[in-house]
Amino acid sequence: MEINARTFDRELDLAELLASVPLARLAQMLAALLGGDFRLVTTGGKLILGNASPFAQPRRVVIRHDLEALGYLESVVADEARLAAAAGMVELMLQLSARYHMAAELHIETVQEDYAALQQKHAALKESEARYKSLSEELEARVKQQVNIIETAQRQLYQAEKLASIGQLAAGVAHEINNPIGFIRSNLGTAQQYVGDLERLAALMKAGDMAQFQAAWEAANMEFVAEDFAALLRESVDGADRVAKIVADLKGFSNVDQSEEEVVDLNDNLRFVSNVLAGQIKDKAELVLELGTLPRILCLPGHLNQVFLNLLLNAAQAIAERGRIVVRSEVAGNEIHIHISDNGCGIPEGNLDRIFDPFFTTRQVGSGTGLGLTVCRDIVQTHGGRIEVKSKEGEGTTFTVVLPI
Amino acid sequence: MAEFDEVNRKITIKLVYYGPAQSGKTTNLMRLHDLLAPDLKGEIMTLETQNDRTLFFDLLPLGFKTPSGWLVKLKLFTVPGQVAHDATRKAVLSRADGVVFVADSQRSQSVNNAEAFQNLEENVRRVGLDFSALPLVVQFNKRDLPAAQILSEGEISQRWAQAPWPLVFSSALIGDGVKETFARLLEQVYPALDKHFSLRETHGVDQQSFVVAVTGG
Known about the structure:
The complex is a heterodimer.
Chain A lengths: L13 H4 L5 H12 L3 E5 L4 E4 L8 E7 L2 E8 L4 H128 L2 H10 L2 H33 L7 E3 L1 H16 L3 E7 L5 E3 L1 H18 L4 E10 L2 E8 L6 H4 L19 H11 L3 E7 L3 E9 L1
Parallel strand pairs in A: 6-8
Antiparallel strand pairs in A: 1-2, 1-4, 3-4, 5-7, 8-9, 9-11, 10-11
Chain B lengths: L2 E3 L4 E9 L6 H11 L4 E2 L3 E6 L2 E13 L5 E8 L7 H8 L4 E7 L5 H17 L9 E6 L11 H7 L7 E3 L8 H20 L1 H5 L3 H9 L2
Parallel strand pairs in B: 2-6, 2-7, 7-8, 8-9
Antiparallel strand pairs in B: 1-2, 3-5, 4-5, 5-6
């Protein structure tokens, strides 16, 4: 504020009180009223209005304002009454002027006061605005940080889910390989025994004692050995072939995280996954394959194997004691439909909308991430397909993987 | 603090009538104008009212000459009581030498009284005065209203028993207690004036003659 506030109730002198009055006109009027020259002076003798040089023997009247004499009105010609009336008029003018002064200056004081208060408020507001701004920036940074942490954790979980199904697979494969390895090992043990028998007989034959040789031949039951030796070698070759096949099939899974597309018959994938799982679930469920003829399609076989594995594992888990899982494949229009059905517990209707949501699980905490079906849906969607589900509580569930040809 | 004008041999004292809206501050001033007979008495100057309610302030100048020939001038102000005029109230209160707090005796006005008193305390501090040292008289006005409407003297005295300020009951409309209130304030104001301007020693004015000179006895 540029106007300098003076206190509104300060004492005003004559000059100040007349500052806002047009003095030339006042002088004319006073001269007319008083019939000639006059002087308006302060109590200190200072001239305010009228004749510059003092009168020799003037008549004078006190000009009062606010209890005090502020000055004198002097005239040589005017009589007492006229002079008193003129002085009274000047006093009235002073009174009005004082009112104006006080009101105006009080107004300025209050305006300045309000302005100062506004400035203070403004400063306080600015300060709090700055505080909120820095607070919000800090919050934003922290939210970003948290989002990063959550995203990282989700990626890790997603990865963990993939690895978990590979772990399941590894267990199945181990079982599948262990079987033939077991009987091959046992066959080889028997073969070793047979080779020992043969060495002994060969020694007797060299000695030329045919009677003894004949007796030993009978004792060793060589007729049977010859037959059995051939059989167990055949069996072992079969077993070795089976292992070789499993290992060959396993390549389909080895590229779970690679995105190299191949042209495959999905029935092979279904057979393989079923084989791998059959050992694990045979106590619970009968696994039936009803595979129709499918055209070969370009896909990521490792990824789709994972889908089938997950769906089969879910089906097995839905079965409480003894049940049946049917894997059926067919062509419908320009789509391949792969149905995996179980006659297990089914999914409550209220949950059907949510089963593909990340982290949705009805299993106990720690026994599933709730990402299995999410991963499945993502994989099928990247193939341009979809997963459909039909379920009735207590009767079973059918998942259908639909892929475009 | 009062103004001391060596050149014009003048001491100017400022007294303020404070209180809630429509408690009778202006009426007090008008009655004082009628009742007092000091050496010098000016006209009441009323600055802007709206429906009989003060917007700026009222001013009543009073004065007397000391034996030493000095002019002691008292300017009595009222403040606008309405809450909205706080800046004006604060400006009028600045440099006050003493305050009369005019409270409204009506039961319905207790809250307004309390708020106005709190406002007085705040504004006294804001204009740089010491509230504990400020001469103050508390006046409960409107005793002429029917007894059912107003707090009894007993109730009020009990409520204010712990307060250090003189308590006066008044009816400004009729004129009762108005002069007494003012006299009590003058008694309160005198010691500080005497201390600063040695009224008794230099100017020959003791407390009693001070009160008599201002009120006209």
